[in-house]
Design goal:
Length: 183
């Protein structure tokens, strides 16, 4: 029964990590290099992640600076940033691309919180589905001859594990909400 619990825990960890990763792509009022993690740049016919063709830094709270290793990429980087769904307005001086992060309006903040809550609910559902699959696995083993009390104990442990991961997901949401609503 322990291997079921271990497998479920691994999958639940991945669900929480995925949520954190998704949250990195949500734009808040603050500049963060993680904001550009999903941006891909056309590099000699290949779509490459921005952080593999340039240095991304945050010198100020509302400014991101992208310094390409190859200056000929500046135009491509600028295009990729404009095409992104982040709604950013990059500018370049021939050496670096500067992206100033405008403060969010109250309405936009509320929309972002709704989006974050929706992403969190998807993670909760994923965690509960992992629990359900684990319980089904435990029941199959019980039906094939495992002791009843062992199965009951395994189900209880799986429920405790699920509850702890739901709490983690809620904490991640709480932190993101605070970050979004920060002025």
């Amino acid at each position: 029964m322990d291997d079921t619990k271990i497998a479920c825990e691994e999958r639940m960890k991945k669900a929480v990590a995925s949520l954190k990763d998704d949250f990195n792509g949500l734009r808040t009022g603050r500049a963060s290099p993680a904001l550009l993690d999903r941006i891909k740049v056309d590099y000699y016919g290949q779509k490459s992640p921005l952080n593999q063709v340039a240095t991304v830094s945050v010198p100020e709270a509302r400014l991101i600076v992208v310094q390409p290793w190859d200056r000929t990429l500046i135009g491509e980087i600028e295009k990729a940033l404009q095409k992104s769904e982040l709604g950013l307005n990059p500018s370049n001086d021939g050496k670096v691309v500067r992206i100033s992060i405008p403060p969010l309006t109250e309405e936009r903040r509320k929309d972002l919180v709704k989006t974050a809550k929706s992403m969190t609910e998807q993670s909760r559902v994923a965690i509960r589905n992992i629990r359900r699959e684990g319980i089904e696995d435990i029941k199959k083993r019980r039906d094939s001859g495992s002791p009843e009390d062992e199965a009951k104990k395994a189900e209880e442990e799986l429920q405790k594990l699920t509850d702890s991961y739901i709490v983690q997901v809620n904490k991640v949401l709480e932190e993101k909400e605070k970050e979004i609503m920060e002025v």
